[in-house]
Specification:
The complex is a heterodimer of chains A (about 70) and B (about 500). Chain A is mainly alpha-helical and about 70 residues long. In chain A, about 80% of the residues lie in helices and about 0% in strands. Chain A has helices at about 5-20, 20-25, 35-70. Chain B is mainly α. Chain B has a single domain (about 5-395), classed as Sodium/glucose cotransporter (Up-down Bundle). A two-stranded antiparallel sheet of chain B has the order 1-2. The interface between A and B is large, with 36 and 44 residues.
Chain lengths: ~70, ~500
Amino acid sequence: MNPILKFILLALPYFFMVLGVGIYDRVNPELGGIPFFYWYQLVWIFIAAGLTFTVYSIENSEKKNRKAVS
Amino acid sequence: MFTDLDLALFFAIIFLVLFAGYMAYFWRKPKDMDATGEWSLGGRRFGTVVMWFLLGGDLYTAYTLIAVPGAAATAGVGGGAFAMFAIAYGVMIYPIVYATMPRLWNVSKRRGYITASDFVKDRFSSRSLAMLIALTGVLAELPYIALQITGIKYVLAALSLPITVSLIIAFLLVAGFTFVSGMRGPALTSILKDSIIWVAVIVIIIYIPIKLGGFGAIFHTAGTISPNLLSINPVIDVGYTTLALGSALALFLYPHAITGTLGAKDSKTIRRNASLLPLYNVLLMFVAIVGIMAVVYFNAYPKVSSEALPLLVLHIFPASFTAFAFAAVVVGSIVPASIMALASANLLTRNVYLEYINPKASDRSQTNLSRVLVMVVIIAALLFSLVPAASGEIVYLQTIGGAFIMQTLPAVYLALYTRKLNKYPVAAGWLVGLTTTIVMLAELNFTSSLYKNFDFVYIGVFALVLNLVVVGIGMAVMKAMNKIKDEGIIENSEFEDIE
């Protein structure tokens, strides 16, 4: 897997959690009465898992292909 | 009020887990329990399921059940929504794990390492640097173990049990099963522990919001008490993000996390777990909100913030469920404490005793020494439960440990990726980082780990930046002197996956 792409996928959560604090440190828009500050971070749990899982899936299938070739 | 039956349930659950810990000795028992890696790493045979609980288990300890809701139920800018830093932290842990731990596992499997210091020793050809990293690891575990002990204290108090006696008995029992079973003890019991905690947590986070009229109503009332409960005050934004990022950088440098990871059966198991474990955080967020719910329910901040979750459970649920939930907290404290003490004992045995005192020690005597050191470490940790943070926002105990261990990042994480690092700049960076951490913490009297005079920055991250700057300057000087070369005895190919 392209190392730059891998780095971007793995590093993305840090940009949104660390540098993005000015964006998510707010109450509105609420979702079902839950402040934005809370649900933004809840959503990121799923996005971050999705990103890491994507990297894992790509690397894993590449490995299988290499094995099949050799 | 608790009946004898409720108390019986409380003790029955705790003893069930401890009993399983002792019985773990027989689990996949090898022919030779004294061989290196058997007692200490469970024979390096843990698959996806065991690793899931072993690695994810850190998220469900006294830290989660007592410290985080406690922080949420604290008044001021460092409380309320600020406790959500634990969620941001959880989100940021696993990409780091994915990038570093498979490499560390591969080289450790090839060379038979059982601690990060074993790796440092060969990577830098320096047993002194390895020892410094080992001692930092032990130092960092002490406040984290202290957090677990303190967590139990608040539950015992709510149960009106004699605290000191119960605590001593609880920890003797933990030390006992670690002594007998080694890594097999916590690995097997962490599955039981997480199951018990999950049942308790799911009941709590479903029933209490219903009782309080739903999340909308909870946050509506919270907003009338303090805006700090809904989002954080911008003055503490830097503190929030550095604490979350720093905690994430620190977690897998802790000896117990590395010991746990090296117990995996292959690097694929680590990758798979790292990619899915973030989902394990979902409940964590709702547990954090329990602290907010406590403030809403009592319409006031609790006098002792760490009692937020125990008090709320005590007021809302029937005594028998409360007994069950409290047992979950106790179990959630003693199992991680066991892993942490075990990892510290491994470091002292391998990287100090074997290296400097008795290089000819047999496998058997090493294992036995580690067993004794488990006791020593637990007693040392009891001292940390006396620092001021232990009676205030106990979440800071964990962040104090994190600030210490973070200073080993260049020697471990950076060294996984480059062979050019030299031991002197790394040692100088470590010294500057650790000194800065200790001086700044002392200035705050160990009550917190956020430095108020500097935007509430997390001390660990601040010190790590200085640490990295020193490493960078040192390497630049070496480059100017043309002294940059491949260090240590580990070939780059040894980080590749073992097929």
